């Protein structure tokens, strides 16, 4: 979906190049790491995105120039539930299922997003947490039947989704997080929290000029469990029966060991 | 020192988990209870997902009940026939508990259900134990021993069919009540991640009228197999058993239980029971408080349940 948008943009850029090739600035970027391994001592990390803007118009000072960095994790369906008080007890009541929520979304930019580009451009490129396409939500009443929520109610669910994701540090917005070192070099650090979901991530750097996207580069970032962590996780999901038997027999063995040690005392 | 839990998918402090395991192990050694009903809520307070807390806790109960059951086996204080009947009910109960767990997870009500069941049971058990131990303490102060209260005979129980002779328990009763007791405890084990001794032991004494000498051993025998089944089922159904977390809990629990047994020797029985009752009541109050106070955020998010 993102790649599709980029692809379309690439064609547009190519066409634009044909008309005014001399004016297009170009990006060169890289990531400090392309693979993050979650081991037993993993407590979160940071990735560094850096790069340079190669100006093809050397004489010209680019004043209205912005760099935006977006890191997204694999999308999955999420359920947002709203509690209501029933007989004095808080109970999960209505719920809304969003079909495509990025499990992780971080955006950093040179200036606040509102001043970098128009909302239509931000929406098209899905830049900014509020501009991510979450798919068409489906509402459910407490008894599991589908219902239709009024639009402002739906908006409060979307706000709640973003608020909860931000609290889990899985949605991050850092206006001013991209800093220029001199005229061409820029860098941004993005926090990867300890509870980060595994999967294929995409780090995209956008170059904007006068509110228009002039270049974008996407690079992959793999986050995966590693070592014993990976082995246990894989086993639990691929061979759940075997895993359960091993866990239970291991526990029984530990109990037997303890009783054997006790008897010796 | 932090360690990343592969199934719960979050890092926890090793020392905190070991200390919790030791504290609950201490209490279980002191009071002779499994301690599952204390550990599961503690794990949930720590932020471990309820499914993982319940699934993992069941493996910890396997370990501690194996230790206890072996000791009773050596002493010959297990009624295997009665244990088998309780186990038959327990297996059915555990399977239906797993089914209910899955259904509630899909409906988004599992957290509420676990909390509610805990509040109800902790409050009832805590109150019963507290009044009983206070009465015992008052009687001890007056110097009059409490008459062994044995209520009226359960005549309805003797009219039930499918009678069976349990030699070790010196009983000739219908198998229906023990199967029902086993079923109920098995269901609780699957939903709450407990062994269920705190329900089964009183039921065996007051309902089935088993001699106290074989009650604990027989209940531990049943708990070993029912929680083992529960652990396997939670692995298969929800992939919710975290081996790393389970190992830490078992280590802490084994160490804590040693000191608990020793500490118990220095305290009077009724004081011990009053103390346990107090802990149980406080736990129930804390969980109940969370249910009725307005939560800081009315909205919560979760990945879609894997089975829906």
Automatic annotation (TrEMBL), chain A:
Signal peptide (from-to): 1-24
Pfam families xrefs: Alph_Pro_TM
Spans traversing the lipid bilayer: 241-262
Entry keyword set: Membrane, Signal, Transmembrane, Transmembrane helix
Protein name: TIGR02186 family protein
Organism: Parvibaculum sedimenti
UniProtKB/TrEMBL annotation, chain B:
Main localization, broad class: membrane
Keyword rRNA-binding found: no
Its membrane topology: Multi-pass membrane protein
One GO location term (cellular component): plasma membrane
Compartments it resides in: Cell membrane; Membrane
Claim: Manganese is one of the keywords in the record: no
Membrane-spanning parts: 12-39, 85-104, 110-130, 215-234, 240-260, 272-289
Keywords on record: Cell membrane, Membrane, Transmembrane, Transmembrane helix
InterPro entries named in the record: TM_pro_TauE-like, TSUP/Inactive_protease-like
Signal sequence residues: none
Family named by the database record: Belongs to the 4-toluene sulfonate uptake permease (TSUP) (TC 2.A.102) family.
Name the UniProt record assigns to this protein: Probable membrane transporter protein
């Amino acid at each position: 979906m993102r790649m599709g948008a980029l692809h379309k943009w690439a064609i547009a850029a190519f066409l634009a190049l044909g008309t005014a090739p001399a004016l297009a600035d170009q990006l060169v970027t890289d990531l400090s790491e392309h693979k993050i391994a979650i081991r037993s001592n993993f407590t979160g990390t940071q990735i560094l995105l850096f790069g340079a803007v190669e100006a093809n118009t050397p004489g010209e000072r680019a004043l209205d120039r912005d760099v935006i960095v977006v890191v997204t994790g694999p999308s999955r369906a999420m359920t947002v539930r709203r509690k209501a008080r029933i007989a004095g007890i808080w109970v999960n009541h209505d719920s809304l299922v969003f079909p495509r929520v990025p499990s992780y979304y971080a955006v950093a930019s040179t200036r606040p997003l509102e001043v970098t580009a128009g909302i239509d451009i931000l929406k098209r490129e899905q830049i900014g947490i509020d501009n991510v396409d979450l798919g068409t939500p489906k509402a459910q009443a407490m008894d599991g039947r589908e219902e239709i929520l009024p639009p402002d109610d739906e908006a409060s669910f979307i706000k709640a989704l973003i608020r909860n994701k931000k609290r889990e540090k899985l949605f991050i917005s850092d206006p001013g997080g991209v800093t220029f070192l001199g005229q061409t070099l820029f860098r941004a650090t993005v926090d990867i929290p300890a509870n980060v979901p595994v999967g294929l991530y995409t780090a995209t750097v956008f170059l904007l000029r006068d509110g228009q996207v002039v270049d974008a580069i996407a690079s992959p970032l793999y986050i995966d469990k590693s070592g014993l962590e990976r082995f246990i996780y894989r086993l639990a999901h691929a061979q759940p029966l075997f895993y359960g038997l091993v866990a239970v027999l291991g526990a029984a063995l530990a109990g037997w060991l303890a009783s054997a040690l006790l008897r010796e005392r | 020192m932090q360690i990343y839990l592969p199934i719960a998918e979050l890092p926890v402090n090793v020392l905190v988990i070991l200390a919790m395991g030791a504290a609950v192990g201490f209490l279980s050694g002191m009071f002779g209870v499994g301690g599952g009903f204390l550990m599961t809520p503690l794990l949930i307070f720590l932020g471990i997902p309820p499914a993982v807390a319940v699934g993992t806790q069941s493996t910890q109960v396997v370990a501690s009940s194996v230790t206890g059951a072996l000791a009773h086996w050596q002493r010959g204080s297990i009624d295997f026939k009665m244990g088998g009947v309780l186990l038959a009910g327990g297996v059915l109960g555990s399977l239906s508990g797993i089914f209910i767990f899955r259904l509630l997870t899909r409906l988004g009500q599992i957290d509420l259900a676990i909390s509610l069941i805990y509040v109800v049971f902790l409050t009832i058990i805590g109150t019963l134990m507290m009044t009983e131990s206070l009465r015992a303490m008052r009687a001890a102060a007056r110097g009059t021993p409490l008459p062994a209260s044995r209520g009226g005979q359960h005549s309805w129980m003797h009219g039930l069919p499918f009678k069976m002779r349990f030699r070790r328990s010196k009983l000739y009763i219908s198998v229906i009540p023990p199967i029902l007791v086993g079923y109920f405890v098995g269901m609780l084990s699957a939903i709450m991640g407990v062994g269920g001794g705190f329900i089964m032991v009183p039921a065996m004494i007051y309902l089935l009228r088993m001699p106290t000498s074989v009650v604990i051993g027989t209940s531990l025998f049943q708990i070993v197999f029912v929680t083992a089944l529960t652990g396997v089922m939670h692995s298969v159904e929800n992939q919710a058993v975290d081996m790393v977390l389970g190992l830490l809990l078992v280590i802490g629990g084994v160490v804590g239980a040693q000191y608990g047994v020793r500490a118990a020797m220095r305290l009077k029985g009724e004081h011990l029971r009053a103390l346990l009752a107090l802990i149980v009541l406080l736990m129930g109050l804390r969980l109940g408080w969370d249910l009725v106070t307005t939560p800081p955020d009315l909205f919560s998010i979760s990945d879609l349940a894997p089975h829906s």
